[in-house]
Specification:
binds zinc ion; 196 residues; alpha+beta; two-stranded antiparallel ribbon; seven-stranded mixed beta sheet
């Protein structure tokens, strides 16, 4: 039997010279296990706290390398209601065309007009997944991070974390100075609902 050897890689930079010099339709597939140390400097808006585990496949089409990347990690976010840090799982699934900047046959630079630097294969034939992973993680983050769907948040008056404690700022225990006004408003409401 042929052993099915899986290549585990722990870097986001790939030398794709072999693929670029090979025939159109050439592919490479890798299992990825990217340690936190490679990920935690990606972006100051999130902290990666687990290795990125997934797989990547490269397909050479003769003018670009199609990259199919899937995987998962976890980031630390701060809850928008109670402000406590919590772990958010993040799934990444991205397809992106990476463009060579050097012609392998002639060694001459290939002129690129308005290409995003994130998807250019550099002059040393290094394809770098860092930027598309960073963008994918950012896109996968919730706009309103919540530690749990029913997070009770902080009391707007005393700042108590209502998930772990109760405070005495409830509307029932209103400042007595407001009680007269409250009664008056209730009375007006009644009159409005039931005009004489
Ligand atoms: Zn919360
Ligand atoms: Zn309170």
């Amino acid at each position: 039997m042929v052993s099915n050897k899986i290549v585990h890689l722990d870097s986001l930079q790939f030398n794709v010279a072999g693929l670029l010099t090979g025939p159109k339709g050439g592919t490479r597939s890798y299992e990825l296990y990217i340690p936190v140390s490679e990920l935690d400097q990606l972006d100051e808006d999130f902290d990666v706290i687990a290795p990125f585990q997934g797989r990547v496949r490269f397909l050479w089409t003769n003018d670009h390398i199609m990259v199919m990347l899937t995987g998962a990690t976890r980031v630390s976010l701060r809850c928008s209601r109670c402000l406590e840090p919590f772990e958010q799982p993040v799934q990444v699934h991205v397809e992106e065309a990476f463009i060579p900047t050097v012609d392998m046959a002639t060694g001459l630079p290939i002129h690129q007009d308005e290409s995003d630097a994130a998807i250019l294969i550099d002059e040393h034939h290094i394809l770098d997944l860092s930027e598309i992973i960073r963008q994918s993680i950012l896109l996968a983050l919730p706009l309103t991070p919540l530690c749990k769907p029913d997070c009770k948040g902080l009391c707007p008056i005393c700042g108590a974390d209502l998930n772990t404690e109760t405070c005495s700022c409830s509307t029932e225990e209103m400042d007595p100075r407001w009680s007269a006004l409250s009664l008056l408003l209730n009375h007006l409401d009644d009159e409005h609902d039931h005009p004489h």
